[in-house]
Design a protein that fits this description.
It is a single chain. This protein is mainly alpha-helical. The protein has one domain (10-49). The protein has one helix spanning 15-50. It is rod-shaped, with a radius of gyration of 24 Å.
Length: 52
């Protein structure tokens, strides 16, 4: 019997990455926008928690 060679599709493993890229871009954008605003809030929260 002759073995039939199957056609390999190497780009199928990239499909989950294709769906994840917009989520990663949105997360990076949100971090870029909100990290400067969160830093003062974290400083105040640490002062409230550490110095009662």
């Amino acid at each position: 019997m002759k073995k039939v060679k199957t056609v390999r599709r190497p780009l199928y493993w990239l499909l989950p990455l294709l769906f994840a890229l917009p989520l990663l871009a949105g997360g990076a954008y949100a971090a870029y926008c909100y990290v400067p605003k969160i830093k003062p809030l974290l400083e105040v929260a640490l002062k409230v928690v550490l110095i009662p």
